[in-house]
Write a structure and sequence with these properties.
Elements: E1 2-7, H1 18-32, E2 41-43, E3 47-51, H2 58-65, E4 73-81, H3 92-102, E5 109-116, H4 125-140, E6 143-144, E7 151-158, E8 161-165, E9 169-170
Parallel strand pairs: 5-6, 5-7
Antiparallel strand pairs: 1-3, 1-4, 2-3, 4-8, 4-9, 7-8
Helix pairs in contact: 3-4
Length: 192
């Protein structure tokens, strides 16, 4: 199943208002794609996740959500179940799925970046990146470049599943429209 994973950062700074700001951001995202068949948008450990039943809608979602204030960045992601949270999985199926996503892309170098929202997972993020990156490198022949890679593969480990994506689209950033108060400005022409 395809998902759109949107990440925000300034909302988390607003301690007592985080839930209200996130709800406003979801409403703004929903409004931007009201005419599209997008599933529920929910909060999943500090990221907003929307199901995308029809992947052909991705270009339209990409164009519209890149203009929504409050989104730092977002990705078209796929999900893979995580059978046992305490055990290290076989990384071959995940690496194979990532290689399938990369088939139509041209790149000479890549890197894998892992984030663990589920801290019960037994491997550290750099270990996951190295394990999956080694398998992807074997399959593609591309070199690993941690600083100036042509392509970044993102893996996010959340309770019960692994989200992975091969593209990160920048958002407009900032705070969501509708969370600030009103401002009045008085300007003088210098004749007073």
């Amino acid at each position: 199943m395809s998902l759109v994973v949107a990440r925000y950062h300034e909302i988390t700074l607003k301690r007592g208002n985080r839930a209200r700001f996130a709800a406003q951001l979801v409403a703004n995202m929903r409004r931007a794609t009201a005419d599209l068949a997008i599933g529920r948008i929910g909060d999943l450990h500090g990221r907003l996740v929307a199901s995308l039943p029809d992947e052909s809608l991705w270009p339209v979602v990409r164009e519209r959500w890149s203009k929504v204030f409050g989104i730092a960045n977002f990705s078209l992601a796929k999900t893979m179940p995580l059978e046992s949270p305490g055990a290290v999985p076989d990384w071959a199926p995940l690496a194979g799925a990532i290689v399938d996503e990369l088939r139509d892309r041209r790149f000479e170098s890549f890197r894998v970046v892992t984030k663990r929202a589920d801290k019960r997972f037994p491997m550290a993020s750099p270990e996951v990146s190295a394990a999956v990156g080694g398998l992807v490198q074997d399959a593609t022949g591309a070199r690993v470049d941690l600083d100036g890679a042509d392509l970044t593969v993102t893996i996010e480990i959340v309770p019960g599943e692994i989200l992975y994506s091969v593209e990160k689209v920048p958002g407009a950033g900032g705070l969501p429209v509708g969370v600030s108060g009103h401002v009045a400005a008085l300007l003088s022409g210098g004749i007073d």
